Amino acid sequence: MNIHESEKIAGTLRAMGYVECDDENQADVIVFNTCCIRDNAEKRALGNIGAFKHLKKANPNMILAVVGCMTQQDGAGLNLRQKYPYVDIVLGTNNLAELENAINKLKNTGKKSVLIDQNENPQVLEGEKKYRTSGCNAWLNIMYGCNNFCTYCIVPYVRGRERSRKMVNVLDEFRRLIDEGYKEITLLGQNVNSYGHDLNDGSNFAKLLEEISKIDGKHRVRFMTSHPKDLNRDVIDIIANSKSICNNIHLPIQSGSNKILNLMNRHYTREYYLDTVEAIKEKIPNCGITTDLMVGFPYEEEADFQDTLDIVRRVKYSSAFTFVYSIRKGTKAALMPQVPPEVSKDRITRLIAEQNKITKMLSKEYEGNVYEVLCEDKAPKRVGYVCGRTDSGRLVTFKGDEQLIGQFVNVKIDKSQSASLFGSLVEE
Ligand code: SAH
Ligand code: SF4
């Protein structure tokens, strides 16, 4: 979501005539796109902004802007203005479209801008300029905001309520991306399964996927994120029957303990979640299931943590994002009794070790088999090698020419190393 938002910022700047540069000393404009989902993301953003003070001093004409969800928190605008007075422009998540005006105003009048619109239901924008930076992969927003108010999460406060783009606009953009040659499109939303509910025109996620499935051509579709309470059997069936929708579902469970899920306001139980996973595995064999897991949520005891480990062992995720719970001011969980940091640290270490074992075991199962891989990029740090993903979402590195980037190729997996797969091209 944030990467794509940055692509929109870059699109606006390019349309104004700016070009990308990789040396900050040369930059005329620097925009920090911030995130406040966890404390460390916020600290990093503030650290980076602080580190640019000297640049601004050396080059007072340089324009410094801070945007993104960090700015949207209560009192953040004022705080930024006081602590970082050299920042020229602060825009909230609903004010990104005002970047061009704010830059022009600063250049023409010297006036700074702090624009943070607190409206929870801002209008859904269409036709934003985008400068895409992810090779043959493209991101596509289908909706914005979130209604779920998980008790740990800041997103509903900084991104407002669920707003879906009209289906015709999503399909239009999808077709355009395919015409432009993109090979993999990832549909984005905080909870894609609620897509369309706010439109009141009969649209829903299953229908959207069905329409997308009908679009001709050789390409892949992924989506994130699915909330386990809303991923229904219709969607599972459509994925199972679609050629273009990847066999890959990101299904964040957060915790394996019913007590903790309830305290988190997640609206499902471990049993309900496991039923969904069973339905996925039955209908979509070889589906790569990934998840988000959190440890150290208030009231989490060792027995709750054991329930999380148990889920990890049962589901066998191909990979998992693991987080230590981080207090977010203004959320309900911030008022609950907190777990000591050393306990959380111990749990996250054990959780990562357990998941690594599973990832390694699943990787072994790929060895010796041939998979269709979308070649996406040069391999990092390996000259003469390229990399791409299987339909299930696993990253494969193989010897090959850069000309393969953007093509579907068959790759035999020769060996695996924890999460990484290494293979060789199978000639047609
Ligand atoms: N909308 C998505 C996730 C958005 S945030 C969903 O519901 O699944 C991505 C992940 O960050 C979450 O799944 C959660 O695991 C993690 N996260 C969110 N708030 C957090 C917090 N306060 N502390 C630690 N991790 C958090
Ligand atoms: Fe946050 Fe929950 Fe909404 Fe995801 S569903 S963005 S975790 S409140």
In short:
With 428 residues, the chain is α/β, with parallel strands linked by helices.
Could you please describe the fold and organization of this structure?
Helices cover 35% and strands 21% of the residues. It contains 13 helices and 17 strands. It has a five-stranded mixed beta barrel. Strands 1-2-3-4 form a four-stranded parallel sheet, sandwiched between helices. A three-stranded parallel sheet has the order 5-8-9, with helices on one face. Strand 14 and strand 15 form a beta hairpin. Bound molecules: S-adenosyl-L-homocysteine (SAH) and iron/sulfur cluster. Iron/sulfur cluster binds next to helix 6.
The secondary-structure class comes to: alpha/beta
Spatial ordering of strands, largest sheet: 13-14-15-17-16
Main sheet attributes: strand count, strand direction, barrel closure: 5 strands, mixed, barrel
Q: Which percent band covers the strand fraction?
A: 15-25%
The dominant shape is globular
Report the total helices: 13
List each distinct ligand once: S-adenosyl-L-homocysteine, iron/sulfur cluster
Q: Give the overall pLDDT as a whole number.
A: 96
Q: Please bin the fraction of helical residues.
A: 25-40%
Report the C-alpha radius of gyration, rounded: 22 Å
**How many DSSP E strands?**
17
State the distance separating the first and last CA atoms. Answer: 37 Å
